[in-house]
Amino acid sequence: MQTVVDFGGEGPLVHLAHANGFPPGTYRPLARTLTDHYRVLALPARPLWPGSRPECFSTWHQLADDLIQALDDRGLTSILAVGHSMGGVATLWAAVARPELFRAVTLVDPVILPPGRLWVLRALRRLGDRWHHPLVRGALRRRRVWPSRLACYESYRDKPFFARWPDESLWAYVEAGTRDLDDGRVALAYPPAWEARIFETIPTDVWQAVPDLRVPTLILRGELSDTFLPASQARMARLLPHARFAVVPGAGHLAPMERPAVLGAMIRDFFDALE
What we know:
Blueprint: E1 5-8, E2 13-17, H1 28-32, E3 39-42, H2 61-74, E4 79-84, H3 86-97, E5 102-108, H4 115-126, H5 134-141, E6 145-146, H6 149-157, H7 167-177, E7 178-180, E8 186-188, H8 192-200, E9 217-222, H9 230-239, E10 244-248, H10 255-258, H11 260-272
Parallel strand pairs: 2-3, 2-4, 4-5, 5-9, 9-10
Antiparallel strand pairs: 1-3, 6-8, 7-8
């Protein structure tokens, strides 16, 4: 049975489904904005399971199946779900397959690409060109070991990728995203081979499920996102007339880390209105 990351709190249950490359603890600053009124849990996705093998993974549908199985194993229902990026897709599919498990869902910058981009992605896969995708190459080249967590933090703090992250979020990522080695150094906790495999299998069939999402839904896009684009948001709005849509100002694809307080307030407003 998967280990649960329990962020604490009391009240209705919120489940946080994390993005590729970012263990649940990365979301601690966001969780803190919710725990005064909700109990917040996260189930680590398959890449973080001990002994899991990326070569045995072929589709993100497995992530949705894993989520459903974990919730069933624990007898959890009426869940207020928050899914970010990869976790947003897994949450969407789980809510479509088993709507009775979910009271409402919030999808934060889900990996739902415009049809034109999906056509290109399918073409590349037919040509056997998946390994040439820059996200895959970047994951496989990622630095894996540092002398200490402080050294890891300092190396990240100067990178443009983390420029919009407040210190609290970056420390949460460093603490959750590294593990201790026997020699005193620290290493990435999220295996780069798994991160690459997730990027390699970005789904092209999500749009088929979107119209079947029936539970109360909030969909949030980072204003500066390069993943969940305005075209995708507009198309989802046409397919889901019952859903609410909003933009997280000043945030990109990693809005939960870049603007945790702003995002948390938006999620709170949505969940509170259900009561």
